[in-house]
Design a protein that fits this description.
By secondary structure, the protein is an alpha+beta fold. The protein has helices spanning 9-21, 62-74, 93-112, 193-210, 251-254, 281-305, 307-315, 355-366, 389-392, 411-415; strands spanning 4-8, 26-34, 38-46, 81-88, 126-132, 139-145, 154-155, 157-161, 169-183, 212-215, 237-243, 255-257, 260-274, 324-328, 331-336, 344-349, 420-425, 429-431. The relative contact order is 0.15.
């Protein structure tokens, strides 16, 4: 037998409900946490209906399933990820294997394209596929190594269990963010804004990965167990600190021509969940750092996806004078997953959105019926535009031998408390922090 999957009983009930409701193939995502020995599945979410799907017959839309996975991946805190896909179909399991293989590879390729953190050697690369027969309720579980294009299906053990994540540990932290990202000169057309910002974010992500992580105020050895000396039947929560030191770079590395810059500043809340099978400090640090990187990158990407930003970018070449504009990045809101212990999911709320829009997205993307009172809105404040010095600062026309900024705590971050703010300022040169 191949990999083992310990599955929350709630998932069994969810799949059973879909079996009784389905009128054709139903696809969806399996969500949980991987470990070297086994994986833990704590949630399942069906693919949202597409308007034209009513006339699409029994075909599976690979792009639609992949996009759903991309959106869901953004809503998962540290320690949770899309582990694979499921399909509910009365077609024989062997006949759906090729479809499942295409789906799981497409999902992983799209999700991994947005990751900025560097994969590690101990990362699990097997993704799970599950076929469920709606009449017999028989399940067939297979895995594929998504890092091997020639990977073939391997059998896996699928076992339901209650309270899978009831005793999972939670590690959380708040981090002040202060970075300056270049944007391209629209007249040069060498790189898109997305590409330039992604490169800048990668530099910042490397600083996060290289930072020192303190758990409950201590730098723990990598192999030390977080729960050592504590009762295992109690829910454990740990507070972490990330100490970040910007990379030391030469002047030639930090001065570059560009059409402008984006300054991202504020404070973010991150958290990670760790399965109860003797979680180590190394795992806690890895998952928490990845969540910090993902939540900041997701917000910047969401802002770029806003129609207003795209319009402004296209008009950029017609501007004759430097301009500065402040934009509020969305704040992070958490929602507990019922019957899943301390585990929660998250969403991002722009300043012009209400909580009802958050619950509607939870329902559409994760098939979760959450009430507004269930949402945890206390971890981050809504960002506010501060009428201040940044708009009054003159545009930088030339840059002499300037030292890169080293301060990770900026005025905007302090003034807006736990909120993120993005400032787009036209400049000819910048210091890449």
């Amino acid at each position: 037998m191949g990999r083992g999957y310990i599955v929350e009983e709630v998932v069994e009930g969810y799949l059973s409900k879909l079996c009784s409701q389905q009128a054709g193939p139903v696809t969806g995502l399996l969500i949980g946490q991987s470990s070297v020995q086994k994986d833990f599945v704590v949630m399942a979410a069906q693919t949202p209906q597409k308007e034209e799907s009513a006339v699409a017959g029994k075909s599976v839309d690979k792009e639609w399933v992949s996009e759903h996975a991309r959106q869901v991946s953004r809503m998962l805190p540290g320690g949770l990820s899309v582990l694979g896909v499921f399909i509910i179909s009365d077609t024989d399991a062997k006949d759906t294997l090729d479809t499942l293989r295409q789906l799981v590879f497409a999902v992983e390729n799209l999700i991994s394209s947005e990751r900025l953190w560097i994969p590690m050697d101990d990362d699990v690369t097997d993704c799970v596929t599950l076929h469920v027969n709606p009449k017999t309720r028989k399940t067939v579980c297979r895995t594929f190594d998504v890092k091997d294009p020639k990977s073939v299906a391997k059998p896996a053990d699928w076992k339901y269990q209650s309270g899978v994540c009831s005793s999972w540990a939670t590690v959380s932290c708040w981090l002040n963010v202060d970075m300056l990202l270049p944007i391209p000169d629209t007249r040069a057309h060498t790189q898109s804004m997305d590409e330039c910002l992604k490169e800048g974010l990668k530099v910042w992500a490397h600083q996060i990965e290289s930072g020192v992580c303190l758990i409950d105020g201590k730098k723990l050895p990598e192999d030390s167990e977080l729960k050592a000396g504590q009762k295992r039947n109690l829910r454990q929560m740990f507070t972490a600190q990330l100490l970040i030191t910007p990379d030391v770079q030469r002047l030639t590395d930090v001065i570059q021509p560009c059409g402008g810059s984006v300054s991202v500043g504020g404070a973010v809340h991150s958290r990670a969940f760790l399965h109860s099978n003797k979680p180590k400090a190394k795992l806690a640090e890895k998952l928490l750092k990845r969540d910090v990187i993902s939540t900041v990158a997701t917000r910047v990407q969401m802002l770029l996806e806003e129609p207003l930003i795209s319009d402004e970018e296209s008009k950029g070449s017609s501007r004759d004078k430097p301009e500065t504009e402040q934009l509020c990045l969305p704040r992070r809101i958490f929602c507990p997953v019922k019957a899943a212990g301390p585990v929660c999911v998250c969403d991002y709320q722009f300043s012009d959105e209400g909580l009802s829009e958050m619950t509607e997205r939870m329902r559409e993307m994760l098939d979760i019926d959450a009430a507004e009172k269930d949402l945890d809105t206390t971890q981050e404040m809504t960002a506010e535009i501060m009428e201040s010095d940044v708009s009054a600062e003159p545009a930088v026309e030339t840059v002499e031998a300037l030292e890169p900024k080293r301060n990770n705590y900026i005025g905007v971050a302090m003034a807006t408390a736990a909120a993120l703010l993005a400032t787009a300022a036209s400049m000819l040169y910048l210091s890449d922090v």
